[in-house]
Amino acid sequence: MTDTIAGVGLPDTSVVAEVTEFLRERTNPLIFHHSRRVFLSGSLHARTFKDRPDTAYGTLNADVFQHFVPGFRRGSTVERVLGAPWPR
After folding, report:
1. Contact present, 60 and 68 (Cβ < 8 Å)
2. Which of 4, 22, 48, 57 has the fewest CB atoms inside 10 Å of its own CB, making it the most exposed?
3. Distance (Å, rounded) from C-alpha 83 to C-alpha 85?
4. What DSSP string runs through 24-67?
5. How far apart are CA 16 and CA 52, in angstroms?
6. Which pLDDT belongs to residue 82?
7. What percent of the chain is predicted at pLDDT more than 70?
């Protein structure tokens, strides 16, 4: 049975069950619950972008920045590579 918190369904897989058990046994309850809140918050924010047909995995970060960061401008991959601070 899948747990639902704030309308977000928690994945019901053996991997999730194992990781949940591992974290409950080995971490402080504050850290365990914080990590769940981060997952739930991220899932809720992702709903803003999920239903956009032009949103793909590679453009999701740009979609998030464009939505939340004033003055953010999308650039092309070439512009990002040429403007990167890496040694040439």
Report:
1. no
2. 57
3. 7
4. HHHS-HHHHHHHHHHHHHHHHHHHHHHT-TT--GGGHHHHHHHH
5. 28
6. 80
7. 82
Is the separation of the CB atoms in 24 and 32 below 8 Å?
Answer: yes
Compute φ and ψ for 38, nearest 5 degrees: -60, -45
List beta partners, residue 4: 9
Is the full-model pTM beyond 0.70? no
Cα 1 to Cα 11, 12, 36, 62: the distances in Å are 10, 7, 18, 35
Tokens found for residue 10:
């928690």
- Residues of the chain predicted below pLDDT 50: none
Q: What is the pLDDT of residue 29?
A: 93
Domain boundaries, the chain: 4-82
In sequence order, the 6+-apart residues with CB closer than 8 A to the CB of 75 are: 83
